Amino acid sequence: MPALKVDLYSDTASKPTAGMRKAMAEAEVGDEQMNEDPSVNRLCARVAELLGKPAAVFMPSGTMCNQVAFRVWCQPGDEILMDRQAHPISSEAGGPAALSGALCTGLDGERGMFDAAQVKAAIRIRRRHNPRTAVLSVENTANRGGGSVWPLAKVAEVTAVAREAGLKTHMDGARLLNATVAAGVAPKDYARHFDSIWVDLSKGLGCPVGAVLAGDAEFIDHSWRYKQQLGGAMRQAGVIAAAGLYALDHHIDRLAEDHANAKHFASAIAQLPGIKLDVSQIETNMIYFDVAGTGMTAFEVRDKLIAKGVRIGASTERLMRACTHLDVGRADVELAARTLREVVAR
Ligand SMILES: Cc1ncc(COP(=O)(O)O)c(C=O)c1O
Question: CA nearest 9: which of 307, 287, 293, 199?
Fold first, then answer.
């Protein structure tokens, strides 16, 4: 395989910067399982404050945040509502069923976002025969929705319906900070509509690993139990928490650059022969585009790009996803667009 010149596969591809590595090397550490790691404790306090929640817990991954939250909120046989393309349905190896005994029902959203009427219609009547609809989960940004940003008013509407019916509300905030930067909304303003909410450190924020789950003290106490049970409790985790603290200081505002680069890339490829893409829908750092018109599958286009040193993911037979991040600059997206032009040229 030739050397990779541009990696647009995912925002998880970024490597820790020199400043982040220095912060990691100098981190104060202790035993995280015993709540004795000062860097982890600082990180949890920072994220709790950012989200306006009383407490938070450090997790190895965003997947574990989703799974632990569902484990806290659900009894076996309960139902979780979310968009049909949401990450726990598509990409968490059946975790809700395996770990919580919960059934996920996918709502037919538009770009990963559903509305209050859909939630209302999906909540089951409480009776012995029915699964208990227990949780509403909202993904912001919605990954397979194209990195779309939930409008705050829509979040308020769907969560109000859920809460009125006694459901818990959960936000998958893998890219919450992309959403808040794009929308100009404070993280707290989204967070107040949710009983549990998390942010990923290893995506746009550029950390090598980690996510932080927040909620009230009782929820976090229960979460600790399941984190322990799943093997997520750590030891001198301050080394990685320090990366998170560094990222919160240095890598939030710059997400706007990723969004601008995504838009630039989208505009550059929108007119290429056989490529279908609506530039007006690019809100954050993801660009999904349809390559069916090129006469090639997404997998073929992916392989031809790789041969030229550019990596873009193939999500389905016809759909590709490019994702901008900390290690991708303006010149990189321009090179990627030129390379795609060569690959699809008739
Ligand atoms: C929307 C969404 N939720 C959850 C996750 C899981 O995060 P992690 O990779 O940290 O487990 C991802 C990862 O891509 C994601 O895109």
Answer: 287
